[in-house]
Each structure stands twice: as C-alpha cells, then as structure tokens.
Amino acid sequence: MSPELLQQLRAIHPSAAPSWWPPSVLAIALACGVLLALVGVLYALHRYRRAQQWRRAALQTLHNSDPRELSVLVRRVALHRLPREHVAGLHGDDWQRWLLSNGLDKASAQWLSYGQYCEDARCPSTLRAEIERWLRQLPR
Length: 140
What we know:
Elements: H1 3-8, H2 25-51, H3 53-64, H4 70-81, H5 84-87, H6 93-101, H7 106-113, H8 127-137
Helix pairs in contact: 3-4, 3-8, 6-7
C-alpha cells in the first residue's frame, strides 16, 4: 500500500451510545400504564378509607362514651348501615329481637333495649367488647 493511501485512512471511532430521549413508543405506553395503575390503586385506597370512615368514628365514640349512650351509638350505626324503614321504628322487644338477629349476645341486647333505663341495672362488663365485635363484623 502506498503511504498516500495510508494517510487518507482515519481512525475508527465507535458510534455514540443510543439516546434515551426520545423514548420509544413502548416505553411511553409502559410509563402510562404504570401511572394509570398507580392512580387506580390510590383511588381504590381512598374509596376504601372513605367507606370505612363510619366504622372508625363509631369505634372512637364507643371507647369515649358513657355506657348509657351506647344504645344511641348502636342505633345510629344501624340507621347508617340499613334502610331507615327497617330500624327507625324499632323499640322494646322488637329492638331487642333485631339486635339478637344481627349478632349481639343476649345480655348486651337486653341491656341496650331496657337496662339503660333501670336505675339498678348495671352495664354488662362485656358490653363494650361485644359492641366492638359487632361493629367489626358488620359488612363493609
């Protein structure tokens, strides 16, 4: 080879690394999908917490209230969870039967129906725990 031809040759330079920008269509679609999934999860979490707000408020009221106010709390929860026509008119034996049929034990249902009006009636020791169990087992 002649020296003139060798001087015309240039050194081999590697090509530049491929750029990340602009991203490919697949990368854009994947990013949009991840973002959409994240928004969906956050929205579902918000709806769940909002749907459970009544339960948290009832449990807080349960632990901070006088035993004579517990019947009002149970009735408020029942009115919130069920149609008004099924609960609003219940009192006495009907209210007690409703409480028994919806998961409260006999002593708690009896005290919530009548005992709070008697001067000598003592609140059952398990009343708060029973109402808390009832609140937690109610359908979401």
